[in-house]
Amino acid sequence: IITLAIESSCDETSVSVLKNGRTVLSNIIASQIEQHQKFGGVVPEVASRQHIESINTVIKEALEEANVTFEDITHVAATYGPGLVGALLVGLSAAKAIAFARGIPLNGVNHIEGHIYANFIQHKELEPPFICLIVSGGHSHLVYMKDYGEYEVLGKTRDDAAGEAFDKIARVLGLGYPGGPQIDKLATKGNKRAIAFPKAYLERGSYDFSFSGLKSSVLNYLNTEKMKGNPIAIEDVAASFQQAVVEILVEKTIACAMEKSVKQITLAGGVAANSSLRGLLQQEAEKHGLSLKYPSLKLCTDNAAMIGCVGYYDYIRGYRSTLDLNGVPNLKIGERYSKYL
Ligand code: ATP
Ligand code: MG
Ligand code: FE
């Protein structure tokens, strides 16, 4: 099965060609970061327009790099949610057009499942069950993946996503967008014990997250120090903030693995690129006899290869999307909206 996969849920136009779901023949990513940087975040209307301008070129590049033509493609996959509806529709419409013109099957894919499946592309031998910590720009989820397509959400954020918190703190520190990588870099120069920011554990036994309190306390700290006229060591703020986020994420992830008695943990989403999160989770996983796997940096952030991988496993399990499939901006993990066979 040769899958052509399209991702356009946010600010990356990406197209990938895959063989049997796990072998990536090409994975082209056209990022719009530059177009959005001057606004300090993703502007939905700008994103949709940019996807329209890029999509055909990116499809062409992906076919060329994979050394295939439309005639070789036997299956199409595209993200249909969650995401910005105008952005989603660009990739989804292109995918539908290809499926219709070529008379080949289409699978609509959940973007968040895509982030999990990036692990299957990176680690050819990886199989469920495992606990996956998904931490991206819009989501923070702890998921028990029992089998392909079978998920139990054990916890999620009640307010900001982890990546969102990184981006907001980076903005107040004047680090620019996207903030995660900048905080990660700056934190290596700071002292993670310099400032004791509060960690929200929530109720006993809860695997949910909350990052808004932490965000407020960073803001309060900065305002108070400024008012006192104290110099602010932003590398210490970055390191201490990052440490608070990472400690919470790691503790709850390990607790989930213990509760479900699984031996494997995976990381997914853009924040999975964070060096401190990878480091501490690796250390704690080893202590508890768990293996930790995460995707390469390129596969952590938005890309179409991970979408193609989900599409492939849905396809071989008998799912098909019909051509009236619509974009679903608030699609939940494990939820199936379209009419499937
Ligand atoms: P979603 O997948 O929830 O729809 P998204 O696709 O925008 O959101 P991703 O592309 O998965 O999110 O991840 C982007 C996020 O990852 C941004 O918030 C960014 O700041 C964060 N990020 C990227 N690299 C790092 C890093 N090294 N440390 C912390 N955060 C990071
Ligand atoms: Mg993005
Ligand atoms: Fe994403």
From TrEMBL:
Keywords: Acyltransferase, Cytoplasm, Iron, Metal-binding, Transferase, tRNA processing. It is found in: Cytoplasm. Required for the formation of a threonylcarbamoyl group on adenosine at position 37 (t(6)A37) in tRNAs that read codons beginning with adenine. Is involved in the transfer of the threonylcarbamoyl moiety of threonylcarbamoyl-AMP (TC-AMP) to the N6 group of A37, together with TsaE and TsaB. TsaD likely plays a direct catalytic role in this reaction. It is an enzyme of class 2 (transferase). One of its GO terms (molecular function) is iron ion binding. The keyword Metal-binding applies. Substrate binds at residues 134-138, 167, 180, 184, 274. The keyword Metal-binding applies. GO terms for cellular component: cytoplasm. Residues 23-308 form the Gcp-like domain. Pfam families: TsaD. It catalyses: L-threonylcarbamoyladenylate + adenosine(37) in tRNA = N(6)-L-threonylcarbamoyladenosine(37) in tRNA + AMP + H(+). One of its GO terms (biological process) is tRNA threonylcarbamoyladenosine modification. Binds 1 Fe(2+) ion per subunit. Its EC number is 2.3.1.234. SUPFAM superfamilies: Actin-like ATPase domain. This is tRNA N6-adenosine threonylcarbamoyltransferase. It comes from Anaerovirgula multivorans. Fe cation binds at residues 111, 115, 302. It comes from the Bacteria. The gene is tsaD. InterPro entries: ATPase_NBD (IPR043129), Gcp-like_dom (IPR000905), KAE1/TsaD (IPR017861), TsaD (IPR022450). Belongs to the KAE1 / TsaD family. CDD domains: ASKHA_NBD_TsaD_bac (cd24133).
